[in-house]
Amino acid sequence: MTRETAPAARPGRDRRAVHLPAPPGAPRVSGTPRSTAVVGAGIAGLAAATALAERGVDVTLYEREPYLGGRVGGWPVDLYDGSPATMSRGFHAFFRQYYNLRALLRRTDPGLERLTGLPDYPLLHANGLHDSFRRVPRTPPLSALGFVALSPSFRARDLVRMNPATALGLLDVRVPDVYDRLDGVSAHDFLEALGFPQAARHLAFEVFSRSFFADPRRLSAAEMVLMFHIYFLGSAEGLLFDVPRDPFPAALWDPLGGYLRQHGVTLRTSTAVEYVSPAADGAFTVTAGGAETRHDSVVLALDTPGLRSLVGRSPRLGDAAWRERVARLRTAPPFLVSRLWLDRPVARDRPGFLGTAGYGSLDNVSVLERWESQAARWAGRTGGSVVELHGYALPEDADREVETKRLIDQLGRVYPETRAARILDERHEWRRDCPLFPVGGHEDRPGVHTPQNGLVLAGDLVRTDLPVALMERAATTGFLAANALLRSWGVRGHPLWTVPGHGRSRLLGSLAGRAAGGARRTQRRTR
Question: Which of 22, 43, 183, 362 has the fewest CB atoms within 10 Å distance of its CB?
């Protein structure tokens, strides 16, 4: 049975969420069978495979790793005592604004009962300042006013010093116009021009910018401001989020894998695609595992290094200009995820997730037994804790062992009771495969459509003019890629939802427009 979200069903509490109707067409493929190779079984590939299979397309899903989920996947490990556990690339927040990702998960979990909400999104600075989003109103602009009123990192004199023209621009973000306005500016320089107080900058804006695994000096201000719009001023869903009750495979991807098999999808895990070659009749030959398979169309749902590599090995894909754009894609700096199995618990009042600033390279701390069943069972049996540390945007030449030690040392500063704890087991994931969204890079970023009929892209690296980011961008572009292929065959696509693509207040928008116009006139006079 196909469990698609009813088009009229609002996906969350925000009454202004935007419904994008399904492209029209026949309910399913009929007549000539259609086949698609989906390369990559991360969120984007899983969304594309689901959307196509539900319309009767014969889908083969290729994945290099032995598991589904891509960067949100997980794999089994044996701990020091022989007990089984699941390792992953770390904590992921499933925000309530992730309408299309959540629609994908509802295929096997209609009530999203495998997710649980964390009660707060606390932020801690090494100087002692502490912010929380638990009591902040969720509906804009009360969300911003509430945050300022409740935050100890804001003072009255800080607000007076802020640049009003730049600040008002935050209240009237418009997608995709925000890229024309701010893509040529770094997130760091934008915050400097804004006059945002230093303490609040660390606790608010840099949380968003570092979610892209990038240093604010290298990140496009447009992407950071878009994040601020999606999660804060453009949506009434708020900044609280859900997390899976179980490890990623059990909670998310194993059930979805079963759902795909029921819809006839062939799952080829542990199978890397070597080449993709277009045929003279418009079809494609996919070479994987030493075997060639013919498909009518191809979805490339790979990470940045994987896409660059596969396109480089497949010289007949696309055209020269498109291939050069793919070759110019870059990855964000390396990041580190360290998971520690400690012999004693952290303090009972520690939150499940804590964002940090001012603690060197440490960006957040998770106490997994607060929500994850597997970690809770281990902690209950041993009396210990399972703690996870993230360090983003590490130096290009960083030493892994040195950075690992630094994260653990900083944990002792954040949670002093862990200094005396013995590490019974530890796992460390050092990766560098997240997309970089550099200053001025948006125009050059490839989109879902390519110059070649039957070939589409999906993933969080893919350009789209919708207000989506991170995991939601991956899911959304997966559905968009499937819809593009379905439309070419005259088959109905899938509906989508997004947060509003512009500011929510006409008055604030008008003030922002006047302020921006005044700033432009001032700039012309001073040239």
Answer: 22
Is 211:470 a contact under the CB 8 Å cutoff? yes
Tokens 């049975």 locate to: 1
What is the rounded distance in angstroms from the CA atom of residue 307 to the CA atom of residue 447?
13
Dist CA 52 CA 486 (whole Å): 7
* Beta pairing, strands 364-367 & 385-391: antiparallel
**Over the stretch 383-426, which tens digit does the pLDDT of each residue have?**
999 999 999 999 989 999 999 999 999 999 999 999 999 999 99
Residue given tokens 């789209």 in the structure block = 464
Q: Tell me the chain's radius of gyration from C-alpha atoms.
A: 23
Beta-carbon-side half-sphere exposure of residue 224 (alpha carbons within 13 Å): 30
How far is the C-alpha of 276 from the C-alpha of 103, rounded, in Å?
30
Report d(CA 10, CA 17) in Å as an integer.
8
Q: What is d(CA 258, CA 128) in angstroms, rounded to the nearest whole number?
A: 48
Structure tokens at 248: 């990623």
Helix (H, G, I), strand (E, B) or coil at 313: helix
What are the φ and ψ backbone dihedral angles of 412, each rounded to 5 degrees?
-65, -30
Q: How far apart are the C-alpha atoms of 268 and 265, rounded to whole Å?
A: 9
Interval 14-47: pLDDT, tens:
999 999 999 999 999 999 999 999 999 999 999 9
488: its two tokens: 């070419």
Q: At what angle do helices 43-53 and 254-262 cross, to 10 degrees?
A: 30
pLDDT digits (tens, 9 = 90+) for 328-377: 999 999 999 999 999 999 999 999 999 998 899 999 999 999 999 999 99
Determine whether 317 is exposed, middle or buried from the number of CB atoms within 10 Å of its CB (0-12, 13-18, 19+).
buried
